[in-house]
Amino acid sequence: MNLKKSFIENNSIRLGLSADTWEKAVELAVQPLIDSGAATRRYYDAIIASTEKYGPYYILMPGMAMPHAEAGDGVNRDSFALITLKEPVTFSDGKEVSVLLTLAATTPAIHTSVAIPQIIALFELENSIGRLVACQTPEEVLEMVEESKSSPYLEGFDLED
Protein backbone atom coordinates (compact mmCIF):
# COMPACT_ATOMS: atom_id res chain seq x y z
CA MET A 1 0.00 0.00 0.00
CA ASN A 2 1.55 3.23 -1.20
CA LEU A 3 0.76 6.35 0.87
CA LYS A 4 0.91 8.77 -2.05
CA LYS A 5 -1.06 6.50 -4.38
CA SER A 6 -3.74 5.97 -1.71
CA PHE A 7 -4.12 9.72 -1.15
CA ILE A 8 -4.58 10.24 -4.90
CA GLU A 9 -6.87 7.27 -5.58
CA ASN A 10 -9.13 8.04 -2.62
CA ASN A 11 -8.99 11.83 -3.01
CA SER A 12 -8.34 11.68 0.72
CA ILE A 13 -6.45 14.84 1.68
CA ARG A 14 -8.49 17.60 3.36
CA LEU A 15 -6.79 20.75 4.64
CA GLY A 16 -7.69 23.56 7.01
CA LEU A 17 -10.75 21.91 8.58
CA SER A 18 -12.44 22.81 11.86
CA ALA A 19 -13.56 20.49 14.64
CA ASP A 20 -14.80 21.31 18.15
CA THR A 21 -14.14 17.85 19.59
CA TRP A 22 -11.76 14.96 19.04
CA GLU A 23 -14.73 12.83 17.94
CA LYS A 24 -15.57 15.33 15.21
CA ALA A 25 -11.90 15.46 14.16
CA VAL A 26 -11.83 11.67 13.83
CA GLU A 27 -15.07 11.77 11.85
CA LEU A 28 -13.55 14.33 9.47
CA ALA A 29 -10.42 12.16 9.21
CA VAL A 30 -12.40 9.04 8.24
CA GLN A 31 -14.92 10.75 5.95
CA PRO A 32 -12.69 10.85 2.82
CA LEU A 33 -12.35 7.05 3.03
CA ILE A 34 -16.10 6.64 3.44
CA ASP A 35 -16.64 8.95 0.46
CA SER A 36 -14.26 6.87 -1.68
CA GLY A 37 -15.75 3.54 -0.58
CA ALA A 38 -12.50 2.40 1.08
CA ALA A 39 -14.24 2.28 4.48
CA THR A 40 -17.74 2.46 5.92
CA ARG A 41 -19.29 4.43 8.76
CA ARG A 42 -18.74 1.27 10.83
CA TYR A 43 -15.00 1.99 10.72
CA TYR A 44 -15.54 5.41 12.30
CA ASP A 45 -17.74 3.82 14.97
CA ALA A 46 -15.03 1.20 15.65
CA ILE A 47 -12.37 3.91 16.10
CA ILE A 48 -14.59 5.83 18.55
CA ALA A 49 -15.42 2.67 20.53
CA SER A 50 -11.76 1.65 20.65
CA THR A 51 -10.69 5.14 21.75
CA GLU A 52 -13.30 5.16 24.52
CA LYS A 53 -12.09 1.76 25.70
CA TYR A 54 -8.30 2.18 25.40
CA GLY A 55 -7.78 5.95 25.20
CA PRO A 56 -6.17 7.76 22.26
CA TYR A 57 -3.47 5.12 21.67
CA TYR A 58 -2.98 6.40 18.15
CA ILE A 59 -1.45 9.77 19.07
CA LEU A 60 2.01 9.01 17.76
CA MET A 61 3.78 12.30 18.42
CA PRO A 62 2.93 15.81 19.59
CA GLY A 63 0.36 17.27 17.21
CA MET A 64 -0.25 14.07 15.20
CA ALA A 65 -2.68 11.17 15.46
CA MET A 66 -3.17 8.09 13.32
CA PRO A 67 -6.78 7.10 13.95
CA HIS A 68 -7.37 3.43 13.27
CA ALA A 69 -9.24 0.47 14.68
CA GLU A 70 -9.03 -3.27 14.38
CA ALA A 71 -8.06 -4.31 10.86
CA GLY A 72 -10.96 -5.19 8.62
CA ASP A 73 -13.73 -3.75 10.81
CA GLY A 74 -15.61 -1.57 8.33
CA VAL A 75 -12.66 -1.51 5.92
CA ASN A 76 -13.21 -2.40 2.26
CA ARG A 77 -9.64 -1.78 1.07
CA ASP A 78 -6.30 -0.67 2.49
CA SER A 79 -6.14 3.10 2.42
CA PHE A 80 -4.96 6.33 4.02
CA ALA A 81 -6.50 9.76 4.53
CA LEU A 82 -4.93 12.93 5.91
CA ILE A 83 -6.59 16.01 7.36
CA THR A 84 -5.24 19.15 8.96
CA LEU A 85 -7.12 21.33 11.43
CA LYS A 86 -7.02 25.13 11.69
CA GLU A 87 -7.03 24.76 15.47
CA PRO A 88 -5.94 21.63 17.34
CA VAL A 89 -8.41 19.42 19.18
CA THR A 90 -7.71 18.04 22.63
CA PHE A 91 -8.06 14.32 23.27
CA SER A 92 -9.07 12.71 26.56
CA ASP A 93 -5.43 12.47 27.67
CA GLY A 94 -4.98 16.25 27.27
CA LYS A 95 -2.85 15.98 24.13
CA GLU A 96 -3.55 18.37 21.27
CA VAL A 97 -3.61 17.21 17.66
CA SER A 98 -3.79 19.20 14.43
CA VAL A 99 -2.82 16.52 11.87
CA LEU A 100 -4.75 13.25 11.60
CA LEU A 101 -3.59 10.53 9.24
CA THR A 102 -6.21 7.78 9.12
CA LEU A 103 -5.14 4.23 8.41
CA ALA A 104 -7.74 1.75 7.18
CA ALA A 105 -6.26 -1.73 6.87
CA THR A 106 -7.80 -5.03 5.85
CA THR A 107 -5.23 -7.12 7.77
CA PRO A 108 -3.06 -6.49 10.86
CA ALA A 109 0.13 -7.07 8.85
CA ILE A 110 -0.56 -3.92 6.82
CA HIS A 111 -0.15 -1.79 9.98
CA THR A 112 3.38 -2.86 10.78
CA SER A 113 4.87 -3.99 7.51
CA VAL A 114 3.65 -1.32 5.12
CA ALA A 115 1.86 1.58 6.81
CA ILE A 116 4.02 2.42 9.80
CA PRO A 117 7.34 2.81 7.91
CA GLN A 118 5.75 5.24 5.43
CA ILE A 119 4.11 7.23 8.21
CA ILE A 120 7.37 7.41 10.19
CA ALA A 121 9.19 8.56 7.06
CA LEU A 122 6.68 11.39 6.50
CA PHE A 123 6.63 12.58 10.08
CA GLU A 124 10.40 12.42 10.57
CA LEU A 125 10.74 15.24 8.02
CA GLU A 126 11.93 18.48 9.60
CA ASN A 127 8.99 20.38 11.15
CA SER A 128 6.53 17.93 9.56
CA ILE A 129 3.50 18.97 11.64
CA GLY A 130 4.00 22.68 10.99
CA ARG A 131 4.67 22.08 7.33
CA LEU A 132 1.56 19.91 6.89
CA VAL A 133 -0.65 22.41 8.70
CA ALA A 134 0.73 25.14 6.42
CA CYS A 135 -0.08 23.17 3.25
CA GLN A 136 -2.71 24.91 1.13
CA THR A 137 -3.24 22.20 -1.50
CA PRO A 138 -3.20 18.41 -1.62
CA GLU A 139 -0.31 18.68 -4.08
CA GLU A 140 1.85 20.26 -1.37
CA VAL A 141 1.14 17.28 0.90
CA LEU A 142 1.98 14.88 -1.94
CA GLU A 143 5.30 16.72 -2.42
CA MET A 144 6.11 16.07 1.24
CA VAL A 145 5.26 12.38 0.81
CA GLU A 146 7.57 12.28 -2.19
CA GLU A 147 10.32 13.98 -0.16
CA SER A 148 9.89 11.36 2.60
CA LYS A 149 10.67 8.49 0.19
CA SER A 150 14.40 9.02 0.76
CA SER A 151 14.02 8.00 4.41
CA PRO A 152 16.11 5.08 5.68
CA TYR A 153 12.85 3.65 7.11
CA LEU A 154 11.79 2.91 3.54
CA GLU A 155 14.94 1.13 2.34
CA GLY A 156 13.91 -2.00 0.48
CA PHE A 157 10.32 -0.83 -0.06
CA ASP A 158 8.94 -0.66 -3.57
CA LEU A 159 6.75 2.44 -3.36
CA GLU A 160 6.37 2.96 -7.08
CA ASP A 161 3.29 0.73 -7.54
Structure description:
The chain is of the alpha/beta class and 161 residues long. Helix 2 packs antiparallel against helix 3 (41-54). It has a single domain, classed as Mannitol-specific EII, Chain A (3-Layer(aba) Sandwich). 43% of the residues lie in helices and 20% in strands. A hairpin with a 5-residue loop joins strand 4 and strand 5. The longest helix is centred in the last third of the chain and has 16 residues, at 108-123. The model has no long low-confidence stretch (mean pLDDT 94). Keywords: Cytoplasm, Kinase, Phosphoprotein, Phosphotransferase system, Sugar transport, Transferase, Transport. It is found in: Cytoplasm. It holds the Pfam family PTS_EIIA_2. Residues 6-148 form the PTS EIIA type-2 domain.
Number of strands: 5
CATH architecture label: 3-Layer(aba) Sandwich
Mean pLDDT: 94
The spatial strand order of the largest sheet comes to 1-4-5-3-2
**Beta strand %:** 15-25%
CATH class: Alpha Beta
CATH topology: Mannitol-specific EII, Chain A
Q: Whole-Å distance between the termini? A: 8 Å
CA-based shape:
globular
Helix/strand/pairing category: alpha/beta
Biggest sheet record: 5 strands, mixed
**How many domain modules?**
1
pLDDT under 50 segments (min length 5)? none
Oligomer: single chain
Helix share of residues? 40-55%
**Rg calculated over all Cα atoms:** 14 Å
CATH homologous superfamily annotation: Mannitol-specific EII, Chain A
